[in-house]
Fold each of these.
Amino acid sequence: MRTFTTLEGNTQRLDGGAMFGNAPKALWSRWVETDEHNRILLSCRALLVQEDERNILIETGIGAFFEPRLKERYGVVEDHHVLLESLATAGLQHEDIDVVVLTHLHFDHAGGLLSAWAEGEAACLLFPKATYVTGQRHWHRAKRPHPRDQASFIPHLLKLLENSGRLELIADGESSPTLGKGWRFRFSDGHTPGLMIPEFDMPDGPVVFPGDLIPGAPWVHLPITMGYDRFPEALIEEKEELLDSLVARNGRLVFTHDPEVAVAHVTRDEHSGRYQVSAPKRSVMSSER
């Protein structure tokens, strides 16, 4: 039996223009609200998958590791580690997690691996029993980042993961020895080189966690990309391939950054050819196999 549950992490506020790339505000402001600083609210959502007596966590959100000055700069809303509270609501502690799957290592997706900031104390690595699974190519990118995205990585975290002895790197086209055959991965380069997208099956179709390839429902529209994306044109092609696959297989997406929609099916309008979400859910407590 397999169940999955969406878990909320810390939220943040980022510049709306950066999140919608070259799309004009007149367009994207129809979908989201902005504050007085032109920032929009973003979730940093994780997904708990429970199967074969294992607890598998996909992503950990931004967490609360930033010291106050950086917390303010990056718009992190809460002071405490929200994901740990969400795990507790699900009846778990971080020590109960067996596997953590990371689509990529940008701080808003992997920062939750670290303990909350405390003055005078170095952040420590959480999830002490877990195997940390991420893409091999992206790991090398994180170790030697481009100047454009260097600030997106946490050097201290990379050292902790490397020294843990529990880091599993997945090459393109390979499966995870830890997760086994019930899990599939596709790889994307549009947002960041080597982003790893996990997929697993449920009775009514596959579930995909696309990370920043499709961070929320508005980004299902093909032309919509983020200013943070490294290769927007390539991302659009990758997104179309994934969405076509999900339409054909009645698949669902789990959105990491959408504060309103956690999970949704994907459809394509026969006349316009546009992709759109259907049966959106704000959260999913569990779904059984």
Amino acid sequence: MTPEETVREGFVARFGTEPRALVRAPGRVNLIGEHTDYNGGFVLPMAIDRSTWIALRPRDDLRVIVHTLDLEASGEFVLEHLERGEGWLEYLKGVAWALQEAGLEVGGWEGVVSSNVPIAAGLSSSAALELATARAFHAASDFAWNPVEMALVGQRAENRWVGVSTGIMDQLVSATGRAGHAVLIDCRSLELDAVSLPTGTAIVVLDTGTRRGLVDSAYNERREQCKAAAHHLGADALRDVDPERLATDFKGLDSTTLLRARHVVTENARTLAAAEAMRRDDAPALGQLMNESHESLKSDFEVSSDALDAMVACAQTLPGCLGARMTGAGFGGAAIALVKDEKVEEFTRSVERCYRASTRNEPEIYLCRASEGASKASPS
């Protein structure tokens, strides 16, 4: 049964009638450009064919009543009296709050949620939930759907309601993804450029089976180190610093902060080079840049882990793999590999066997296709 069918049947079982709307929003993988988004830089993600789905019908009052099939849990809140709490419902409350903060009138609804985006694997399950929730409010209300504005709503919900200082990348690609393409995002101007994936290649997501809690991780510490480096260099953000300037103006930066800055500055350059390689349909060049990105994330930004390093090392040695790197915030979760189409099956079997032997962890391997961003589907 597809996730779409699952939420529709779940809605019928819970509310005794067909839903009035079905909405979805995808997770994402980031091909390259890690920890550059909150530095005003460039990222190159793609929306994936794994999504959060909500089946719903509007209500006549200002209540939101939701059941999640994945957790078998229910919750509700009143739009006029939003109060912070804990758990999964905070993402939905945060979106409601951010929509109202943006001056939009939102209506109540009741719905059922399900997702096949793995949680805490670095595939942006939270952004998928936020954008699906925004789509649900859109279906129950009268405001216009603007993908970029809705991405900013999702980011505001996560930053200011949930309390996680993410950049705009996850929500923006979940809102604006394009089938068959990655999206080069300028995180300062929010300019978007869809770039075709290399011919004859596939993106394979390599879930290490290890998880990290983003709020409790060193994510916020890295963000502060980047701000300190930019301030020292007299820049608004590290996006404004090129490798040559960093190499000459680094005096006075402590060694750790310098390494953090070096990753961001070189990662921005790699991301632009990767987009250009894709425009040339140069898969080997893209793969090499992915390899270099992982080494920088491991050694300079120090957000990899033993499990991620083991998975990437396994992938990089296998026939047909053009490049591999960790993806997401780090400290656990998933890596990705760029693999020749004809080698995907062999690669999947071999990398799983290699990783299991190296770590004794149980991995999950997903072949992902680039999908469309958040959308509304017919409930029929």
